Amino acid sequence: MINAKPDLGFTKTSHDSTAAAVLLTLTYADLFAYPLTPAEVFQYLIGLRTERADVERALAESPQLRGRIARVDGFITLPQRECLVEIRAARHAAAQRQMPRARFYARLIAHFPYVRMIALTGSLAMENAADHDIDLLIVTRPGRLWLVRGFAVALVRLARLRGDRLCPNFLLAETALAIPEQNLYQAHEIVQMIPLYGFGVYRRMRLANAWALAYLCNAGEARIVSAEIRLDRAGAMLKRFCERLLAGKIGNRLERWEMSRKLAKLSAQVPATDGEARFSADVSRGFLDGHGRHVLRAFLERTQASNATKSRPV
Q1: Suppose 42 and one of 13, 55, 94, 160 were both cysteines; which one would form an S-S bond, judging by CB atoms 3.0 to 4.6 Å apart?
Q2: Residue 206 burial by CB count (10 A; 0-12/13-18/19+): exposed, middle or buried?
């Protein structure tokens, strides 16, 4: 099962349960070639609420982890995966070069009418980008999602001319902040996103998806890692003017036209077995490769094969 809440069989924190959760957490991170610091092991610990001292103690003393984890330069990995530390360092350096570009495009999108929130998602949000994609989640005013998407697509094409791969592939209306697919992959996407604009809406989105903390129990703190993008007076006035201009019949007609022509085209591209891509009046979620489903399947197979835990829903 994919859309199920985690059941690790733990009723209370113990050395054995903490060690088992650590192994699960490292196994999941390994799917992304991402070694973790001890602090990150605690933050992204799967299915178990505990204290950081308990995790540190398990990493240092647990017989269950002896020979099943490796330490390299302050990072924790699975055995024979120590090479990932160098990979993480290289990807971190690449992400640092990419971050200013991400904020640049987010600032432009923040000026679009009806945009209420922008967050960096995907591998770049974790500074673990193996590609150059700038994945953005955008929240819009209800009834104007497809109009905003049209503006964003135009910016994508301009960005391509500059050699940047801008991917605003997830748009939500403010009335659709709750993610219906409740699984480990989506929980990570929620807690790992970095808000860039509209911090108030971001906090509402975290509250609307509080279920994610059933998977990542120690990741309750909002991930604010940079200053919020704010519009200057001229930019804010221009945005309000455009919103007033598009608030009536003209905007309604443009929204209906853009939605009708895109819904048919995009829906036809969704594989019959896909459970991630969704297109409606309030959602445009263009993940057509089933990446999340593949990750969850690989995670379940690996945990079963390694006996990190008994076979349970993820």
Answers
A1: 55
A2: buried
Q: What is the pLDDT of residue 130?
A: 77
- Which residue range is the domain that position 253 belongs to? 99-290
Whole-structure pTM value? 0.89
Print the SS3 string covering 9-40. Answer: CCCCCCHHHHHHHHHHHHHHHHCCCCCECHHH
Q: What is the pLDDT of residues 194-232, one digit of tens each?
A: 999 999 999 999 999 999 999 999 998 888 888 899 999
Domain contains 250: yes
Domain tally, the chain: 1
Measured distance CA(231)–CA(245) in Å, rounded: 19
Q: What are the structure tokens assigned to 276, written together?
A: 């991630």
Closest CA relative to residue 258, chosen from 171, 146, 148:
146
25-46 pLDDT tens trace: 999 999 999 999 999 999 999 9
Rg (CA), the chain: 21
Let me know if 264 is exposed, middle or buried by CB neighbors in 10 A (0-12, 13-18, 19+).
exposed
Rounded distance between C-alpha atoms, residue 56 and residue 126, angstroms: 22
Q: What are phi and psi of 311, to 5 degrees?
A: -65, 115
